Amino acid sequence: MTAIEVKSTFSSPALGLAAFHRQFPKARTLLVGPGSGGVPLDLFLSRPAAEWLP
């Protein structure tokens, strides 16, 4: 199971991912967006989905 949160700005924390991770601690999480500390959106969209999923 993988959760992906897409952020449009870097100003707010990834609250959705944190809540998901508390419910499913073994699941993989992926943060996408500018300045999020995660994967840049253009890189995320340029790769096949299989590269991001386990």
The general outline is flat
Assembly type: single chain
The tally of strands reads 2
Q: Largest sheet, if any?
A: 2 strands, parallel
Total helical elements: 2
**Roughly how much helix do the residues carry, as a percent range?**
25-40%
Description of the molecule:
The chain has 54 residues and is of the alpha+beta class. The protein has one domain (2-51). The protein is built from two helices and two strands. The protein has helices spanning 15-23, 41-46, and strands at residues 2-6, 28-32. Strands 1-2 form a two-stranded parallel sheet. The longest helix has 9 residues, at 15-23. The radius of gyration is 11 Å and the shape is flat. It starts with a strand and ends in an 8-residue tail after the last helix. 6% of the residues are buried.
How would you briefly describe this protein structure?
The chain is of the alpha+beta class. The protein has helices at 15-23, 41-46, and strands at residues 2-6, 28-32. It is flat and about 30 Å long.
Question: How would the blueprint of this fold be written?
Answer:
Layout: E1 2-6, H1 15-23, E2 28-32, H2 41-46
Parallel strand pairs: 1-2
